[in-house]
Amino acid sequence: MNSIETFLAAKTYAVAGASARTHKYGYKVFKALLAVGRETYPLNPVTKEIDGHKTYPIIADLPLVPEALSIITPPEVTRQVIDDAIAAGVKHIWMQPGAEHEQASESAREAGINVIDDGSCILVLLALQS
Comparing C-alpha atoms, which of 45, 27, 47, 43 is closest to residue 35? Predict the structure, then answer.
C-alpha cells in the first residue's frame, strides 16, 4: 500500500481546521470523510459543533487517539497541530494543499508517522472512491 492508501485504510480520523462554514475546505473534508463512512472527529478551538457533531479544541481533548489526521490549517498552526499529533500517537497525517509546514513534516516523519504533504487533496481521492 502507498502512503495515501494506508491513510485511507485507517478506522478513525480527526480533521484539524474543521469548519462550520460550508464553503470552507475544513467543512468539506470533514463531511466527505463522514460521507464515506469514516469515524471522524472535528478539531476546532473556536466552534462548538459542526452539523450536530461536537468539536474538540485539540487532539488531546478527543475521546480517542485517531489513527489518521487531515490538516486544513495555515502552516503556522499546522506546526502545533503536528506536535500535538506526535505527542498523542497519531499514525497518519495528511496536510491538505496550503497547510504544509516543512519542519513539521520532517518532525512527523522522524517520529515514524506516515506523512502526505505533496499537494494531494483528500477531496479528490474520496470523490474517486465514492
Answer: 27
